[in-house]
Amino acid sequence: MYLFTSEVVSPGHPDKCADIIADSIVDRLIIGDSKSRVASEVFVAGKHIVIGGEVTSKTRITTEEYKKIVHDALVNIGYDGNPYFTKEECLHPEDIELQVLLNAQSPDINQGVDQESGEIGAGDQGIMFGYADIETKNYMPSAITYARILMEKVYNYAKENPSKLGVDIKTQVTMDYGKKENFESCRPQKIHTIVVSAPCVNTMDINSVRALIQELIDDAGLPEELYNKNECIIHINPTGKYVSHSSLHDSGLTGRKLIVDSFGGYAPIGGGAQSSKDYTKVDRSGLYAARWIAKHIVAAGLAKKALVQISYAIGVARPTSIAVDTYGTVIQSLDDDKLSEFVQENFSLTPNWITNKFSLDKPSKETFLYADVAARGQVGQSDYPWEKLDELEKFEALR
C-alpha cells in the first residue's frame, strides 16, 4: 500500500476563528474603502481576543464596532451562546474581552504599493504555489477533498443540532494509492482511514456520539468506489468523550492552518498566510492566481497534475519568477519549459491584473466574502472567482 493523509478543521476551531475574525475585518474595511490596506493578525486565547497589525483605510471602525465584528463572526461560526454547553465548556460570545492594537501601514511600504502610474506593486516579497490534479471533479487532491466533505457534514449537523454536538471539529482522511506509481499518476484506490473528532454535550455517552458520527460519515456522499465502511479504518473521538472545546481550551492564531487552507500537503506552500491581508498582499492574491493557472493546465488536459510557483519583490508589480512543474505528467507535445513560457507571455500576473481578474477589491455577499473563504478554505471551492475555468480555450490551444 501507499498512503497519503490530509486533515481539515471546521470554522469552530480556534485557529479558524482567528482567520474568520481577521477576514471579517478585511471585508468590512474593503467594502467601505476598496483601497484599504490591511494586515491585521488575530490571537484568540480563552475569552481574550487580540487584534494587532496595520490598517490604512478611509473606513473608520471604533473599538465598539470591532467588538461587534468579532461578536457577529463568533455567532455565525456557531459560538452563539449555546445553552447546552456551559461557559466553562465552550466560549460564549458575550464573555469576550477584546484588545485592539492596530497601526497605520508604513509609508515606506505604501510608496511602492500604490504607484503614480496606477499600477499596484506587490505588498510584500514572497513565494506562492498553486496546484491542481485530476483526482476529483474540482481538480483538487482526494484526501483533503474528502476530509472537507466530512467536516462540512459534521459541522453543519452540529450547527443545526446544538443540543448534541459542538462546532470545534477536526477531520482527517488517509487515501491508499496501492503503490507510489498510482500516487504519481493520480489514481487513488480507496479511502484507507477516517478520523473525526467532534465535541458533544455532557449528557451524551461516547457510544451514542460514535454511532451518530458514523451515520454522518456514511451519509456524507463519499465516492462509493473509494469508501467501503467495512474495509475502512474509522476513528471517532479516539480519546473518548470530548466536551470542553473552543478557545477556552485551545488558543488560536491567524495563519496557522496553511496546509488545511490550501492543498492538504500534496503541494508546497508559500511563506505567508492569506487571511488578515488585503489583495495587494501577494501571499493572498498570488496563491489565487497560481491555483487558477494550475487548474487551467489540468482541466485543459495538458497534464494530470500541475504545480505553479510565482514569486514577487516588494513594491515591484511583475513577478520575479514563474515556474510550472507537471511532475512528468505533461502531454508529449509539451514540456514544463513551454508551459512556463506560455504563462509568462500571456498573463502579466501583476497585483493589478490579479485584482481585476478576480474582483478582489469588491468582496460582497453576492460574489464572495473573505471571511467565508477563511471558513471554507482558500482554494478548491467552485464558486470562488479564482476557481472559474474562464480561459480554458486559450490553454486547450496548446494541445
Automatic annotation (TrEMBL):
Instruction: Please name the pathway.
Output: Amino-acid biosynthesis; S-adenosyl-L-methionine biosynthesis; S-adenosyl-L-methionine from L-methionine: step 1/1
Query: GO MF terms on file?
Result: ATP binding; metal ion binding; methionine adenosyltransferase activity
Q: Enumerate the PROSITE patterns for this protein.
A: ADOMET_SYNTHASE_1 (PS00376)
- Provide the S-adenosylmethionine synthetase N-terminal domain boundaries: 2-107
- One Pfam family name from the record? S-AdoMet_synt_M
What cofactor does its activity depend on? Answer: Mg(2+); K(+)
Top-level taxonomic group: Bacteria
List the keywords (alphabetical).
ATP-binding, Magnesium, Metal-binding, Nucleotide-binding, One-carbon metabolism, Potassium, Transferase
- Family matches, as PANTHER family: S-ADENOSYLMETHIONINE SYNTHETASE (PTHR11964)
Q: What is this protein called?
A: Methionine adenosyltransferase
Organism for this UniProt entry: Sulfurimonas xiamenensis
